[in-house]
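Journal club prep, notes for RB
We'll compare a predicted complex against what the paper describes. Inputs for the manganese (II) ion case:
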Amino acid sequence: MAAGIRVDPALVERAVLELAMEGAHGETGVWRTVYSPEWVAATDRYTAWCEEAGLRVHRDAVGNVWGRLDGTDGGKAIVSGSHLDSQRPGGRYDGALGAIAALVAIRTLKERFGPPRRPLEAVALCEEEGSRFPSANFWGSRAITGAIAPDDPETTHGYDGESIAEAMRAVGLEPERIPEAERDDLDAFVELHIEQGPILEQSRLPVGIVNAITGIRHYVVELRGTANHAGAFPMDLRRDPMAGAAEIISGVVATAHRMGRPAVTTVGRVVVEPNGPAIVPEAVTFTVDARHPDPAARDALYAKHEALMREVAARRDLEISWHHTFDQVPLTCDPELVRLLEEAAANQGVPSLTMASGAVHDTQRMAARCRVAMLFVRSKDGRSHTPAEFSSLDDCVAGIEVLAAALHALAY
Ligand code: HGY
Ligand code: MN
Ligand code: MN
């Protein structure tokens, strides 16, 4: 396996800063939702960078941007990449660093070693976050792996009611052609991503190698009661969905806390109707993001949450309903690829830790079509999904050099 592969830090820094300008939000944040003008500009910039690197560009039917370096022997492609869409707002590294890393690594390999034996591809994926269309998580990788059903584009809606099909058409994409984005010629997918948690920083390590990715379920829970006057209506006669939501929210968080790491549960979004200070609400709708990497523990976590929700609603005489907008099983990465990444890190002289991911990633979807594994880069203060997200240039470069060494081992 090649050692001492170096990438140009200036190239990495320039790419991170320039991409962050597409949808800049405040000093260090980004707000770049899929199919928005900012996202289109980011895909155009990524396309130009691929062309500058001498890669053959293909923009697929769902909006992913591919940069390909053909191999002398052909065969299935070795792919690396991540997503360009962000949370609302998000940071400048989540997803973007992985798309940049793939491009910089392949460009570096091309310039230093010439054409590979096997085709190498960088990909900038779309709508990993579901930040504009809450049930469209992994939209880009789902297209690649044939996991978008024919009626999904018309039945997938954003918070403002617009369908993802309408949003696609508005930027010149044809939802009917999404099946053309499917790939069956992929051998391996390695995604570089920021860790988004504190483990690498606590371990004083720049790079992690991911051997497992957590499972996740997003509930949207609606509690309905009776709207009433906040002052004149007695407490003992109320059917107050806010009181029920408060009990459930603190209960599901406490359940995950009691279960202990790596169980997590988050309530990040609450919508109150009619949302007036002097009105006992009619309805309260909130999301529950519950995760665990172990299938049995995950099912137990979900069962505890659902039992609590039913009990509180019955006791408070509230109507309750919920549906899932996101449900992804955990993934164990390809052990051979994990070992190859561990060896690449050692060869590059980069100390690393092999660990699980508490965030979910397109890698879980790509596993349906090829071998997968991930590389992590340390997150300052373990923070992400916030403009405060930061990874040092040194750590980003170290991660990309490990990625380059791994891609070299796979493709040359
Ligand atoms: O929520 C996640 O784990 C991912 O960042 N969308
Ligand atoms: Mn994210
Ligand atoms: Mn991400």
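Talking point for the session: The chain has two domains: 9-213+330-411, 215-328.
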